[in-house]
Amino acid sequence: MNDLHFNLDFYDQLHLGRSDKYRYDFIKFKYIDRQYYSNINPVLNSAVFIFRTIQNGEGKGNVLIDILKDENINGVQVAYHKNCHFHFIEDRDFEVEGKVTITDYIEITIYENELSKQYVAILKDQLCYPNNDSRQRFKFREMKYLLFTEYDHRKNLNNTSNIEFAPVFQKQLDVIWHENRYRNFNSISYIDEKNIKDGDAWTMVKEKIKSNSEEWHDKYRKVQEELEDEHRSFKYRPVED
Question: What is the residue-wise DSSP string for 152-202?
């Protein structure tokens, strides 16, 4: 799967270009913390789910889902692309039908139990292939993807966060963060001053920069491999061509 974070530039800004391959739906959730009755949750409120609907080819109508941070979205780039749409979802939007319809291909619904709510994307009429055989094709009337789980901490759950993204989306955020750290540590401005002493030769400073950069590059590669493992764990993958 072509993760959208590969389209981030050096400044972590999303570049969409003017290609008509995708329709982009940016989805934000307004989260109410039921423990403190607060509308603020830094984990969820700073993230945006991006649904890309393929507009042509064999995979027409198939939907790809990614997650980015708000700061990755460049308003000028979004306006330049023209086929971009924004949706802001609150709990009350589910009260009438129990779901929110985004497009003919995308619905968001909630599955609720005593301890948690699971926010799930339901994708309609998806053409997929088995993860171990890209030659086969299967048409699914519905394909479901967990977006995130909201835990009710009034039930005294002690070993969860209020909001937990599905593993594949958490890994996407981890990759972005680690890649950013790797790039930053190529700069002398990110060297801790305590590690630089008066009289240090420039060659020594460069070695410290290189050491920090290599350390974060290794961490970045590790989380990238973990994300690839998540994709490999999917039973089916959408046709993208």
Answer: -GGG---SS-SEEE-HHHHHHHHHHHHHHHHHHTTSGGGS-GGG--TT--H
Query: Residue type at 67?
Result: I
Written in H, E and C, the secondary structure of 197-235 is CCCCCHHHHHHHHHHHHHHHHHHHHHHHHHHHHHHHHCC
SS3 37: coil
Supply φ then ψ for residue 147, to 5 degrees.
-95, -55
CA distances from 205 to 115, 168, 192, 198, 218 (A): 52, 37, 11, 11, 20
Question: Using an 8 Å Cβ cutoff, are 169 and 147 in contact?
Answer: yes
In the chain, where the domains are located = 4-238
**Placement of tokens 């985004």 in the chain:** 102
Contacts of 48 (CB under 8 A, 6+ apart): 26, 27, 28, 67, 68, 69, 70, 73
Question: Distance (Å, rounded) from C-alpha 128 to C-alpha 105?
Answer: 14
Contact 85, 23 (CB under 8 A): yes
| DSSP string across 125-151 | EEEEEETT-TT--EEEEEEEEEEEEEE
pLDDT at 10: 60
Residue 212: alpha-carbon gap to chain centroid: 26
Q: What is the DSSP letter of 91?
A: G
- Give the pLDDT confidence of 142-193 residue by residue, as tens digits: 999 999 998 887 766 777 778 899 999 999 999 888 887 777 665 544 555 5
